[in-house]
Amino acid sequence: MESVTTAPTPSAKERLLASARVLFHERGINPTGIDLIVRQAGVAKASLYNNFASKEALVVAYLEQELDGWVRKVHGQDDPLAQRSDRIATVFEDIARAVESHTFFGCPFTNAVIELPDCAAVRVVADRYRTMLRAHLAEISGADAASSLASRLVLLYDAAITAAKMGRDDGMISEASALAQELVSAHTTKA
Amino acid sequence: MESVTTAPTPSAKERLLASARVLFHERGINPTGIDLIVRQAGVAKASLYNNFASKEALVVAYLEQELDGWVRKVHGQDDPLAQRSDRIATVFEDIARAVESHTFFGCPFTNAVIELPDCAAVRVVADRYRTMLRAHLAEISGADAASSLASRLVLLYDAAITAAKMGRDDGMISEASALAQELVSAHTTKA
DNA sequence: ATGCAACTATACCGATCGGTCTGGTAAAGT
DNA sequence: ACTTTACCAGACCGATCGGTATAGTTGCAT
């Protein structure tokens, strides 16, 4: 039985966003030309510009799609009744799982800011993501979003992603996870 | 009195590397065209290709220059007789100072890996940098390079840079610095 | 003084970029 | 029946890309 929200034949817009996602992840944004996106989506070039004002608009839509996906994922898998340290561990396991399945290409928002440093709209979405990331990490650790602990968890999350992107990963992700859990435990017992 | 190693008139190669550095930092690598580099260096296009085989080779030379500069900087300012936590603090103060002076554009090696994901030579230089970074952080903290503490310090260093790049920086750098110093102190007193 | 190497200046190359335009097809709305 | 909407296919546009070629100049070494 199909979900009513999933059309059996994706629209041109959906196919464009889907192939843009794959290509931006695998090759980066700037090296991925319009023609390639269109061809891989099996869509006419005009359909791209009927749905998006420009390549930049497509990039922003792609980032918003990534943000939506991230929100849905963390809401779907996070168990509010679990131990704080387990909820923290889940976040880092996510990164490790993506690395193992070779579907990890770094943080899409960080990558986009680096690739398009002059695009204000990209910055806006990235800021929105980072605010929500901080809120989520604060929530699952039982800390205030403005707290020092929340800052430190954001730092460790960013760090794990950077390490996964840059290194051959000698347990850096689990190291970040362990330190994060230590911080949360210390904070929990202290309170 | 001039240093013997600094020519009064920089060669074409030196001028090219100097302007490549500025442009790659400010605009990123891919959006910076050859013509712009050449024009800003006040150099003929042929001089670029007399000194570098391709734009990619220029990028690699730029990264090697960045690595050299980083090595010289840390060797110049680090005081082996200082307290461990002070030596750690210096590393993070460096980032904060760069941010304040608006000469901070994120980690050149991370940025280059993101902008040119298919360039193996870029990866090589980036790996070299990361090995030296780990060795340096291990040394100034009195830890083994393969130790858990060294991993954690690398994580926090990366994190501080990412936070500085992505955020409006509400004390994230000093938060990373504080945590790093706490880890080193705990490790020192334990031993 | 002569020859070579390094340099400047600029025209030029094919390829590709983001983006537009034309033209045609198929389904849905009225 | 007619229009509108959404779509595909692909030619086409000017601009820019990385890179080469031509031609002339400067300065140093022998």
Keywords:
homodimer, mainly alpha, Arc Repressor Mutant, subunit A, 9 helices, 73% helix, 0% strand, DNA-binding
Care to describe what's here?
Two copies of one chain form a homodimer. With 191 residues, chain A is mostly helical. Chain A has two domains: 10-52, Orthogonal Bundle (Arc Repressor Mutant, subunit A); 63-190. Chain A is 73% helix and 0% strand. Chain A has helices spanning 12-27, 34-41, 45-51, 55-77, 84-100, 108-115, 120-141, 148-166, 172-190. Chain A is elongated. Residues 1-7 of chain A have low confidence and may be disordered. At the A-B interface, helix 6, helix 8 and helix 9 of A face helix 6, helix 8 and helix 9 of B. The first copy, chain A, binds a DNA duplex (30 and 30 nucleotides) through helix 3.
Blueprint of the fold:
2 copies of one chain form a homodimer.
Chain A: H1 12-27, H2 34-41, H3 45-51, H4 55-77, H5 84-100, H6 108-115, H7 120-141, H8 148-166, H9 172-190
Helix pairs in contact in A: 1-2, 4-7, 5-8, 5-9, 6-7, 7-8, 8-9
The first copy, chain A, binds a DNA duplex (30 and 30 nucleotides) through helix 3.
Listing every helix as H and every strand as E from the N terminus to the C terminus, the arrangement of chain A reads HHHHHHHHH
Fraction of residues of chain A in helices?
over 70%
Oligomeric grouping of the chains: homodimer
Question: Measured on Cα atoms, how large is the radius of gyration of chain A?
Answer: 18 Å
Question: What separation lies between the terminal Cα atoms of chain A?
Answer: 49 Å
Mean pLDDT of chain A: 93
Q: Approximately what portion of the residues of chain A adopt beta-strand conformation?
A: under 5%
Helices and strands of chain A: which structural class?
A: mainly alpha
Query: How many strands of chain A?
Result: 0
